[in-house]
Amino acid sequence: MTLDAGTKLGRYEIRSKLGAGGMGEVYRARDEKLNRDVAIKILPAALSENGDRLHRFEQEAQAAGALNHPNILAIYDVGTNESAPYVVSELLEGETLRQRIEHGPISTRKAIEYATQIARGLAAAHAKGIVHRDLKPDNLFITRDDQIKILDFGLAKLIQPPMEEIAQTNVETRRVHTDPGTVMGTAGYMAPEQVRGRAVDHRADIFSFGAVLYEMLSGRRAFHRDSAIETLNAILKEEPAELTNTDANIAPALERVVWHCLEKNPERRFQSASDIAFALESLSGVTSHPSQQTFTRRGISTGRFWTRERLIWAGLCLLLLVAMTALAIAYFSRSEPTVHPVRLALTPAEKTTAAANLTVSPDGLTVAFIANNAEGKRELWVRPLAADTPQVLAGTEDAETPFWSADSRSLGFFANGKLFKVDAVRGRPQALCDVRDVAGGTWNRDGVIVFSGTEGLYRVSAQGGTPELATKVDPKEEAHRWPSFLPDGRHFVFLADAQTTENHHIRLGSLDSQETQILFGAVTRVVYGPPGYLLYVNQGALVAHPFDAKSLKVTGDPITVAEHIAEVGFNHDFDFSVSDNGVLAYQIGGTKSQLAWFDRTGKKLETIGAADNYATLALSPDGARAVAGLLDTDGRQADVWIIDFSRGTKSRLTFDPQSDGDPTWSPDGKRIMFTSNRTNDGHIHLYETSANTTADNQLLLRSDADDIPMSWSPDSTSVLFLRFKTTARATVWLLSVADRQAKPLLESQAFDYGSAEFSPNGRFIAYDSNESGRNEVYVQTFPPSGQKWVISNGGGSLPLWRRDGKELFYLTQDGKVMSAEMKSDSTFDSVVTKQLFQTQFKRAPGIPYAVTNDGSRFLINTPAEANTAAPLVVVLNWTATLKAKE
User: Fold this and answer.
1) CATH classification of the domain holding 82
2) Burial code of 638-647, b = ≥16 C-beta within 10 A, e = fewer?
3) Each residue of 841-857: pLDDT tens digit?
4) pLDDT over threshold 50, residue 336
5) Are residues 281 and 374 in the same domain?
6) Do 94 and 142 form a contact (C-beta atoms < 8 A)?
7) Of the four, 176, 180, 661, 780, which is 20 to 30 A from 702 by CA?
8) CA-CA distances (angstroms) from residue 222 to 172, 214, 240, 259, 289?
9) Residue 530 falls within a domain, yes or no?
10) Angle formed by the axes of helices 202-218 and 273-281, to 10°?
């Protein structure tokens, strides 16, 4: 049954037919939900006639969909259309390996490259217990960027052809099914145990792999006979022709890999695809064998070698060798020229502000960064070092924390709860998957992206798909952030973030296991910098710690590279980056901030006290004081302080050696609720203290999560607080102050809730949530009745009420202070939203602003430095700065 363009299969709309084969028809379709093109394979309807087989199909397709590897076709979904099952996968552009081989043998170098990719894909599947059973050139696809994709994983054993006489033409690509015993596969590529109808394991794929590699190198099939029966007999009893009969330049070591795969007895073959990949990688520089002797599987062929002509040539070569040796001695005895670092200052484009999140491409030619444009929209910009001005990448609004692909052609970034990739020249972002934590990513040469998460780091294909957990957080940690691949593309370093300083660590992880190991303690993002350093920030200074990428161990002592590195955002994101070839980029800044009063037009009225490391702040109900969390030198909240405006004093309220912060006032101004991790159980809990004494700290609520207070009810009986658990979405809870019982108030399995505040009359709650894909401000009845209103338009968070309840304030991501005016404090059907002013606020944990009762003035936690961002510093040959310090 052929589907017409426009036909709907669930959320997929058919666009065009791409082809047909024994395993069904393939269509190009549009995934309307994720806004991407996909491929849909409609499988034979007969597959659904047997309930057991359909169930097995669904299980096997789900297992194949769980595979997340750059060399395996990504499976997105399965379904049924008019009794015909279908599989939804990524859409590929290029050609099959069969089509490539039709033009003749593939060069040795390219064949090794392709074979290594195939072996890696097989190894990933075999590690999950999935065997292909029908590996052949038709099921191997070469994308336009020369990447191999293995197709139809797990489907071969489920789809049987009709019982018919097999034609005598093209038999090597036809499937074979016999009874008794099921023989599934394709004649010419099946392992002997498959031909005999015996149980097979992953080693059957290794035999098929050998047949494919043989065909790539020779241009002909390893087992080619006039009929399927003769071909199957050849697999059981005969050997393929010597590869050197086709190409005398094929290396003996490479030929031995082929024969080792094609052993009749599975016990004598390679025992894993990983072993094959290792053997092939060791041959990546080998293209031919010595001409003195011809190696075969059966022995060594020798003959008369030292002829008169060869002796003459040997003598000439000897003379040439002596001359070259003399030249080499003269060359290498020269003194090495001195290499000096070169520093450049790059400025953002005109009319842009808040440039940050800079990242230099691996080839050192381009710097990317985030900046706000003239309208205040945050976008991703690229600046080739050879160009005069940066260029914005279209479609990257709200971008955060960009990172480069290993080939320097593309960028990954986060925006509105999703991970995207974008071509660094042409733009056109593509959504890859949903994310919950925006704290860095890294992209290896195999097309694997590892990115941050609260349960651990996640990995996903650069082609998109379902993220897979790559690491798991320790019970004393809160998230894994800022991964950076090491040169082997398998291992990576990252920050294990925690609530207590002693539990922060730089860890080492691997794509091969979720297990990690501690390298050293630090509270910063970390990157690897060739030729052998880990770069991170220690007490505001960028340091380079010697690191052996082979033994995976730090050595020696860290060396200071630059001072006063700017910190961006909330999660220890310091603004620096390094390329593979000696280019370092960073931005100078500081961690201190300044409390300042602004009017509704954005005019600065006055500053409050000296600069300090302020975080969350809140005004007392009478407006005479403020309470704030202050960060210590490593960027964690340390203690709660009271600022008295009339006396111009700042006094410490908490003295526990652990971390205290996130304070909020009671309605009468007598009590303050805050968070602390002083229980040392790896979580932060709710505490309460008097606003006028330091000796009245009480634990209000202890749980197996991180709890942060947000707002007291006007009658002081309840408190709204946020709950964060590594295995769940962020939720809003309600605490009864009298009996200290808590219950969930706003929760969802699909999205997160954020900052929440009671309305002055206690009948409503304002909060922010990313349920629409980006943070917006909402108002909902209290107690919740299901009735809610969307207040912001185009993004918003951190809502605060005016005391009369007729105006609601919130912040946009790019720092605009917004106002939403209501006709009354009991209806939100007619809300007028407008911008009050643009400001810069210090990006630190918690709420960075407060508003007076009448809404006339705003207390804002602003950067202590100048309003304009410092220039981006680029250092060429940065390692030369280390030699003078070592």
Assistant:
1) 3.30.200.20
2) bbbbbbebee
3) 776 678 899 999 999 99
4) no
5) no
6) yes
7) 780
8) 10, 6, 5, 11, 22
9) yes
10) 30
Q: What is the pLDDT of residue 53?
A: 56
Confirm if 873 and 345 have CB atoms less than 8 A apart.
yes
- Mean pLDDT, the chain, integer: 82
Average pLDDT over residues 462-480: 88
Tell me how many domains the chain contains: 4
Helices (H), 574-693: none
Q: In the prediction, which pLDDT does 185 show?
A: 59
Domain, as residue range, for 18 = 1-91
Residue 181's pLDDT band (cuts 50, 70, 90): very low
Q: CB 785: neighbour CB atoms within 10 A?
A: 8
Number of alpha helices (DSSP H) and beta strands (DSSP E) in the chain = 10, 62
Burial status of residue 840 (CB atoms within 10 A of its CB: 0-12, 13-18, 19 or more):
buried
3-class state of residue 729 by DSSP:
coil
Q: What is the pLDDT of residue 867?
A: 40
Q: How far apart are CA 524 and CA 507, in angstroms?
A: 12
Phi-psi region of 669 (alpha: psi -120 to 50; beta: other; left: phi over 0): left
Neighbouring C-alpha atoms within 13 Å toward the C-beta of 245: 8
In a domain, 332, yes or no: no
Residues paired with residue 723 on neighbouring β-strands, in sequence order: 707, 731
Indicate whether 743 belongs to any domain: yes
Together in a domain, 151 and 225:
yes
CA–CA separation, 3 vs 9, rounded Å? 10
Whether residues 544 and 673 fall in one domain: no
Q: Are 222 and 214 in contact (CB under 8 A)?
A: yes
CATH number at residue 284: 1.10.510.10
Does any domain span residue 254? yes
Of 45, 69, 91, the position where a domain reaches its end is 91
What are the tens digits of pLDDT across the range 488-501? 999 999 999 876 66
Question: Is residue 685 pLDDT above 70, yes or no?
Answer: yes
DSSP H helices, 89-159, are 97-101, 108-127
Q: How far is CA 384 from the centre of its chain?
A: 24
Shared domain for 69 and 121, answered yes or no, is: no
Model pLDDT for residues 201-254, shown as the tens digit of each residue? 899 999 999 999 999 999 999 998 888 888 888 899 888 988 877 676 788 878
Are residues 137 and 227 both part of a single domain?
yes
Write the DSSP string, 819-871: EEEESSSS--SSEEEEEEEE------SS--EEE-TTSSEEEEEEESS-SSPPP
DSSP 191: -
